[in-house]
Design goal:
single chain, alpha/beta, Alpha/beta knot, Helicase, Ruva Protein, domain 3, 2 domains, six-stranded parallel β-sheet, 45% helix
Length: 243
């Protein structure tokens, strides 16, 4: 059975874009590749007329439908799978794949799950706190002579790979995963319990939480999995208070 990415389940999330023209170009790219959802997080609402100069009239309706939100966690809460983009590599960010590898992974995930593609501000990209929320990280290969890529160009590269990705050996699809909000609530509960038993260093609790996030990110968590883990945490917490 031939399968491709379900484009209606893909959304583009822009954190703090600086230039209206770039957002307009992103809208045009999204339209080219069959994506109709754009969220802008933590940035000012930009003049629609200025954005439409670069989106052209073909993607003007996407400009009118852009959703503006102030908080990244709020924006991502309803998505089951988050893909972060980064140009920098380091141990804090974990394993990073190419756009083509990412696109292949999304074929089965996107069938029953909403996927957000996250892009940071033009000058510095996504912060570590944003990348920690992601289930997958992508780096676009570039020449060493010039590594920086225009925002809309980066969006186009990822969206093109997603649009053209196909597999012929897929018979089953990944069912609905836990949402980003469910997973973040689980991590907060785990963190509170580990702090209670003294496992986390109070000076740097996020260091060990990063390793726990990596541990769970090796598998795909369903809502029932999250409920079981949170139930175990609640029971352990109760036992600590009643021993």
């Amino acid at each position: 059975m031939e399968a491709s990415v379900k484009m209606e389940n893909i959304a583009i999330v822009l954190k703090g874009p600086k230039y209206a023209g770039n957002v307009g170009s992103v809208a045009r790219v999204a339209k080219n590749m069959g994506i109709d959802k754009i969220l802008v997080v933590g940035g000012r609402e930009m003049p629609p007329a200025e954005m439409k100069l670069t989106s052209t009239h073909f993607a003007a309706e996407l400009i009118d439908q852009i959703v503006y939100l102030n908080d990244m966690k709020e924006a991502l809460a309803g998505f089951e799978y988050l893909v972060g983009t980064t140009s920098r590599l380091g141990s804090v960010r974990g394993p990073v794949v190419s756009p083509r590898e990412m696109a292949a992974n999304l074929i089965d995930i996107s069938q029953h799950n909403r996927v957000a593609l996250l892009f940071g501000p033009e000058d510095r990209g996504l912060a570590n706190k944003d990348l920690r929320l992601c289930h997958g990280l992508v780096k676009i290969p570039t020449s060493e002579r010039l590594k920086s890529i225009n925002l809309s160009h980066a969006v186009m590269i990822l969206c093109y790979e997603i649009f053209t990705a196909q597999r012929n050996d897929l018979e089953t699809f990944t069912p609905r995963l836990a949402t980003a909000a469910e997973i973040e609530d689980m991590y907060e509960q785990i963190k509170a319990l580990l702090q209670k038993i003294g496992f986390l260093n109070p000076q740097n609790p996020e260091y060990w939480m990063l390793h726990i996030r990596r541990f769970f990110s090796r598998t795909r968590l369903f809502s029932k999995d999250v409920k079981i883990i949170r139930g175990v945490c609640r029971q352990l917490d109760w036992r600590l208070d009643n021993k």
